[in-house]
Write a sequence for this structure.
């Protein structure tokens, strides 16, 4: 019985769906509020993302005549499940590093690829030219950022000499966080750039470019599926920085002052992401790929070389 | 019931549909998004796809070319949704009413919830009208 109840609790309430959802919505409010303040506006009240989600849930869900209804409606759920699992696995391993299992890092990396995949499936299934265009751009963007992102994460694996989350956390516990090592710093910078692309925020919001392709893959979505997509994006805004903190920045600790420190780490990453989003123009897709495969990958490889020689 | 109407009042997303306006109303509408008026305070966002919209903001005198498009857009908007006619043109056809190419006010084609007269209406007038319209939900 316990074998069923604990995972279900982890998955649905803490640290899975409910917890990640609430913190993610708050994070997306911070994002919108800071954006508004940067543009000298007042910005929305704190419950705004929640109101958006509830409103979309209450609205009519239109399945247009063209698309394949199954894929069209299942795609958002796929993304939501992916991001919930990422959050659950990363948090459970942080709370209890001993429960690490072989290949957990690889599992999380695969799960992190699910939300973009869901966007691609949804956009392509919607049979709208703009949706298809958005899906194609998302696909190119995924190709662009996965390479440097994987190199950056595996720099840590090389440095630690193990592919277990638990070992990475223990290593940082005893040898200092990854950011103390030159290779770790380079990998961390690369990972931040790639997570900006993973979150499809400016300058990498090319797939949904509101002003040119009308929110791209989401163009035909309405009502509940759109709400799930929005929620997935909000949850990614929480799950991805937590993943970065775990791998590069010593993980999450909850005793005494460490709790404050953990929160500060997350807020710092969030602020970096929001500030980058607000101070950059959108790239074209070819510029983005050139940037991600050029300088970013070069820095990632440099970090990898440093890790191999032991720095 | 409150669970359904509260979010609707707090986060109306508007879709902007021009049916042959002189562009002045459209500019005044965009004015609402600027720092001076900032309608995001009320959760109002201008969105690009009519499928996400809660309110269709129609400007312009409704030319013959636009009629099928307006109908299509209205059908594509998920319900419940409001229709807001902005500007004297959209409300009454204004000075263009005798033109050969004008079909008539918007409410000839689709049901309208709020009329905002003015040529063009002030941003304050639009914000107050939208807030009043949300009150009727
Ligand atoms: S109401 Fe006046 S400002 Fe608005 S579209 Fe008509 S003519 Fe232009």
């Amino acid at each position: 019985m316990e074998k069923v109840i604990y995972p279900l609790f982890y998955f649905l309430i803490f640290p899975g769906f409910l917890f990640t959802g609430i913190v993610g919505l708050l994070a997306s409010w911070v994002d919108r509020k800071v954006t508004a303040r940067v543009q000298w506006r007042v910005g929305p009240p704190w419950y705004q993302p929640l109101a958006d989600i509830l409103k979309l849930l209450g609205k009519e869900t239109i399945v247009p005549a063209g698309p394949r209804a199954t894929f069209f409606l299942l795609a958002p759920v796929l993304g939501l499940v992916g991001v919930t699992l990422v959050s659950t696995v990363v948090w459970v391993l942080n709370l209890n590093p001993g429960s690490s299992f072989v290949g957990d890092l690889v599992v999380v990396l695969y799960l992190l690829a699910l939300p973009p995949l869901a966007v691609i499936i949804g956009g392509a299934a919607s049979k709208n030219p703009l949706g298809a265009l958005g899906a194609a751009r998302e696909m190119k963007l995924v190709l662009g950022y996965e390479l440097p992102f994987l190199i950056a994460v595996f720099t840590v694996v090389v440095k630690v000499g193990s592919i277990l989350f638990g070992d990475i956390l223990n290593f940082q516990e005893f040898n200092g966080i990854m950011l103390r090592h030159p290779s770790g710093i380079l990998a961390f910078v690369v990972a931040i750039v790639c997570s900006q692309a993973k979150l499809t925020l400016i300058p990498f919001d090319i797939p949904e470019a509101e002003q040119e392709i009308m929110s791209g893959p989401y163009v035909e979505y309405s009502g509940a599926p759109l709400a799930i997509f929005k929620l997935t994006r909000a949850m990614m805004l929480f799950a991805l920085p937590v993943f970065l903190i775990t791998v590069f920045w010593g993980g999450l600790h909850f005793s005494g002052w460490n709790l404050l420190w953990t929160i500060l780490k997350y807020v710092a990453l969030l602020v970096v992401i929001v500030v980058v989003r607000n101070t950059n123009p959108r790239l074209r897709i070819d510029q983005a790929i050139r940037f991600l495969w050029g300088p970013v990958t070069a820095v990632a490889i440099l970090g990898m070389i440093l890790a191999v020689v032991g720095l | 019931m409150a669970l359904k109407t509260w979010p609707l009042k707090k986060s109306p997303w508007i879709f902007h549909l021009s049916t042959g306006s002189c562009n002045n109303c459209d500019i005044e509408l965009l004015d609402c998004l600027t720092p001076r008026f900032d309608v995001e305070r009320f959760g109002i966002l201008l969105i690009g796809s009519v499928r996400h919209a809660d309110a269709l903001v129609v400007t312009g005198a409704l030319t013959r070319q636009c009629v099928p498009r307006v109908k299509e857009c209205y059908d594509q908007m998920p319900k419940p949704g409001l229709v807001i006619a902005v500007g004297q043109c959209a409300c009454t056809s204004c000075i263009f009413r005798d033109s050969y190419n004008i079909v008539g006010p918007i409410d000839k084609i689709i049901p309208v919830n709020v009329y905002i007269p003015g040529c063009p209406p002030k941003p304050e007038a639009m914000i107050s009208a939208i807030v009043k319209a949300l009150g009727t939900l």
About this structure: Residues 2-308 of chain A form one domain. Chain A has one domain: 2-308. Chain A has 13 helices and no strands.
